[in-house]
Each structure stands twice: as C-alpha cells, then as structure tokens.
C-alpha cells in the first residue's frame, strides 16, 4: 500500500480514493503478496469517516481471520477512518448485496465474484477503477487476472487470488498402494487411469466404505467443483455470448462430464454424497479437490498429514478453474 506519511498535511481525501485504498489494502492482506495498486500519498481522510466492507466467509479459516483484521489495519494507516467489517455465509451473501442495492444501502467496499462483474456493471452497482490504479502495478498481474478484472476495456474490481483447482492427495496412502502420481503434464492421468487408482485406494468392509477415494470437503459437490471436469470434456454451460444454454448445457460433452463426475458419488461409490468436515485432512479420503488456499489450510491444521499436489485427470484436454473473489467499490 502506498499510503505512507509524507510529512505534509495533504488535501482531504475524496470518498472514492479512500475506498480505493480500502480495496487495495484488503487485496494485499488477503493474498499476502499482492502489491497495493492504489496510490494515496499526501492525502488525509475527512474527520469521522466510516466505511463498510462486506465479504462472504470462506471455508478456509486463515482467509477469514485475515479479512476480519483488515479494518483495524486500515484504520491504523488512515487516522480518522472507521471500518465496519461484516461477513456473511456464502448462501446469504449475494442476496444481501442485491437487497442492499435495491434499498440504496450498498456497502462502500464489497466482495465481487468474478462471474458477476458484468452484471454489476450493467446495473451500475460498482465504479470503474482505472483513474485510481497505477499502470505500473497492473503490469505485475498475469494475463488471466487482468482479463478477469476487465470488462468493456475498463477495470472494475481488484482480484484477491486465482482459484485454480488441483488434485490433492495423501502421500502416505499412495506410497502404501505403490502408486506414483503424475509430476508433469506429459504424465497426467486420464480419467480412466484415475478410476483405476481410485479403485485401488478406496477401502470397503461389510458392504460399506471405510475410506473414500475422493471427496470435496471444502465445497459442496456443485458447479464450482465440476467446472474443470466439464471443460476437460470439451463441455460448456453457455454459448460464448452468454445468452443460450440449449446446445451447450445439454451437449454430449457436457452430459458426459456430468455423468462421469456423478458416477463417482453414486454408481461407483468412490466419493461421499454427504461429505463430513475435514474428510481429507483426517485421512477419510485419499484425494480431494482444492485450490492453493485450501492446500495451505490443510497443511497448517493437519501437521501429520503429508500432502501432495497433482493435476486433475484430463479427458479431451487439460483445464482448471480461474477467477475468484474481487474487491469492488460501490457506485
């Protein structure tokens, strides 16, 4: 964050610039590495300014703790500013935002999920950040997050992270089964190979599963988790312009991917339909699907578990999720 004290009184900071500083600070705190991209040198806040920051709680405690502490950190660097941080469960958050917008009570700074950026722009819920963002800092972003934050050639929100999904595995369980996971793309398992491995590591006794092969502990079995499986099959949810589902959601490739993934839970009984918390961390599953902050949380909380990372099993092509939560500024 470039909000250093220059020794000058400075001019009163405008509300938009102050909120932009909040967005930069939140992103920097959450990622632990993201350089703040909003410059506020030589500015000061108006007396008794209060800002509201809303976010949806993660399944990962580390990120929640970081975001909960954001308000105090920003207050320390901006005397006279009070930050009210409020978190909501995922199932409630987006309805809360829409309700607040309808009542003209949208929080000053809030989480914007990447797929909703265009929607929020169309509804005039967020402001463009181009005048507030330093180009030299934007150049530090990889092309994917640069594309995520940009709509109609303008920057609308700052990304916290990228949500690339990987296949995490229990190292000791695979060693015991004498299975060597792929460590380069040319060794990446196909889906058929993954099924063979899963059948070797699943444990059953007296007609019930005592150790699962695969589980989605951190996220419920839903579209977010299945997206890379659809992409690897060549499937799509919507047309490229986002206006039609027919011919895409029901295409043979998409149906095949849904069927394969669903069979892991039903027909093959390799994954639990109702996963319990920490199924993977407690050794009740050999594989789980997760992104980098899920991996970090597992490593920090389960010290005796040796965790490895490999690719999700491919089909027609390789793929993984991209995009994640961003910080937006209310219009």
Short characterization:
The chain is an alpha/beta fold. The protein is 34% helix and 19% strand. α10 crosses α11 (252-265).
Structural features, described:
This protein is of the alpha/beta class and 331 residues long. The chain folds into two domains: 11-163, D-Maltodextrin-Binding Protein, domain 2, CATH 3.40.190.10; 166-322, 3-Layer(aba) Sandwich (D-Maltodextrin-Binding Protein, domain 2). It is 34% helix and 19% strand. The protein is built from twelve helices and 14 strands. It has helices at 15-31, 61-68, 70-77, 90-102, 117-122, 135-138, 143-149, 171-176, 191-201, 223-232, 252-265, 292-301, and strands at residues 11-12, 43-44, 49-56, 81-88, 109-113, 150-151, 154-155, 158-159, 166-170, 203-205, 208-215, 285-290, 307-310, 325-329. It has a five-stranded mixed β-sheet, sandwiched between helices. Helix 10 packs across helix 11 (252-265). The relative contact order is 0.17. Mean pLDDT is 82; it is low at 1-45.
List the helices and strands and how they pair.
Blueprint: E1 11-12, H1 15-31, E2 43-44, E3 49-56, H2 61-68, H3 70-77, E4 81-88, H4 90-102, E5 109-113, H5 117-122, H6 135-138, H7 143-149, E6 150-151, E7 154-155, E8 158-159, E9 166-170, H8 171-176, H9 191-201, E10 203-205, E11 208-215, H10 223-232, H11 252-265, E12 285-290, H12 292-301, E13 307-310, E14 325-329
Parallel strand pairs: 1-2, 3-4, 3-5, 11-12
Antiparallel strand pairs: 5-14, 6-7, 8-14, 9-12, 9-13, 10-11
């Amino acid at each position: 964050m470039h909000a250093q004290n220059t020794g000058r009184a400075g001019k009163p900071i405008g509300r938009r610039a102050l909120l932009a500083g909040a967005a930069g600070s939140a992103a920097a705190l959450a990622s632990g590495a993201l350089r703040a991209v909003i410059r506020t040198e030589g500015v000061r806040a108006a007396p008794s300014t209060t800002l509201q920051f809303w976010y949806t709680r993660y399944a990962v405690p580390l990120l929640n703790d970081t975001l909960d502490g954001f308000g105090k950190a920003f207050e320390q660097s901006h005397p006279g500013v009070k930050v009210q941080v409020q978190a909501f469960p995922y199932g409630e958050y987006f309805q809360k935002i829409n309700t607040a917008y309808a009542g003209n009570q949208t929080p000053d700074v809030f989480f914007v999920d990447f797929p909703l950026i265009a929607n929020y722009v169309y509804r005039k819920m967020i402001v463009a950040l181009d005048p507030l963002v330093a180009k030299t800092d934007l150049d530090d972003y990889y092309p994917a997050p640069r594309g995520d934050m940009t709509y109609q050639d303008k920057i609308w929100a700052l990304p916290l992270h990228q949500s690339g999904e990987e296949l995490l595995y229990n190292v000791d369980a695979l060693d015991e089964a004498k299975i060597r996971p792929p460590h380069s793309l040319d060794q990446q398992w196909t889906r058929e190979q993954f099924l063979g491995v899963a059948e070797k590591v699943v444990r059953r006794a007296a007609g019930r599963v005592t150790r699962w092969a695969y589980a989605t502990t951190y996220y419920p079995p839903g579209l977010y988790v299945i997206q890379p499986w659809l992409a690897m099959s060549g499937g799509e949810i919507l047309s490229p312009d986002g206006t039609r589902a027919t011919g895409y959601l029901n295409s043979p490739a998409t149906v095949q991917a849904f069927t394969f993934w669903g069979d892991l839970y039903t027909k093959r009984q390799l994954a639990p339909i109702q996963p319990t918390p920490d199924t993977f961390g407690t050794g009740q599953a050999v594989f789980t699907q997760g992104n980098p902050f899920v991996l970090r949380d597992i490593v920090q909380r389960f010290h005796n578990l040796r965790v490895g990372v490999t690719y999700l099993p491919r089909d027609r092509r390789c793929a993984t999720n991209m995009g994640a939560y961003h910080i937006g500024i209310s219009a």
